[in-house]
Sequence to fold (173 residues):
Amino acid sequence: MKSHHITPSALERELAEGEYIVSTTTPSGRITSVNDVLVAYSGYSRTELLGSQHNILRHPDMPRAVFWLAWDTLQAGEDFMGYIKNMSKDGGYYWVFSQIQPEYDKDGGVIGYRSVRRQPRRSAVAAASALYAEMLAAEQAVETRDAIAAGLAVLRRHLGAQGQSYEQMVAAL
Ligand SMILES: Cc1cc2nc3c(=O)[nH]c(=O)nc-3n(C[C@H](O)[C@H](O)[C@H](O)COP(=O)(O)O)c2cc1C
Fold:
C-alpha cells in the first residue's frame, strides 16, 4: 500500500536519544519485522507494516536519488548510511539517521536487509533538508525517466564543492 493519499502535515516527531527504529525486509524490500518504536512513529499497526513495501514510510519530500543510491549501495554488498525523512500515517514526519545492511545466509547469499534508525543531529536535519529540497526540485524539473540522474547531479555537485565522498558528507553533517 502506498501512502499517496496522505496529506503531509507540519507535525514533526523527534526521536529520543537512545531510541532505535528497527525493521527487516526481504531482498526486494518487503517488510518482515518491525519493532514497537517503528509502530509508534509510523502510526501504522504491525499488521499494516508487515508484508508492505518500505515505501509505505516514504515522505514526498524525499528525492528519488537518495533511495536509488541506497539500493545501489546495498546491491553492491555494502552498508548504506543516510538521513531519511519519513511520513507517519497521519501525515506528520520524523527524520532518522538510517543504517541499512544486507543480511546473509551461511553460504553468503543475501536473505534480506536490516535497518536501524536513530536520532539525527539537528544540524544534520537542517543540512539534509536543504540539500534534499534542491535535489527534489531538480528531479521535478525533468521527465520522470531523468529524475534520478538530475537528483544525483545535484548531490555530486554538492559533494564536489565540498571535496567529499557521500560517506564523508553523511559522517560530517
Ligand atoms: C531495510 C530497508 C529499510 C528501508 N527504510 C526506509 C524508510 O525508513 N523510509 C523510506 O522511505 N524508504 C525506506 N527504504 C527504501 C524503500 O524500499 C524504497 O526504496 C523507498 O521508500 C522509495 O520508494 P519508491 O521508489 O517506491 O518511491 C528501506 C529499504 C530497506 C531495504
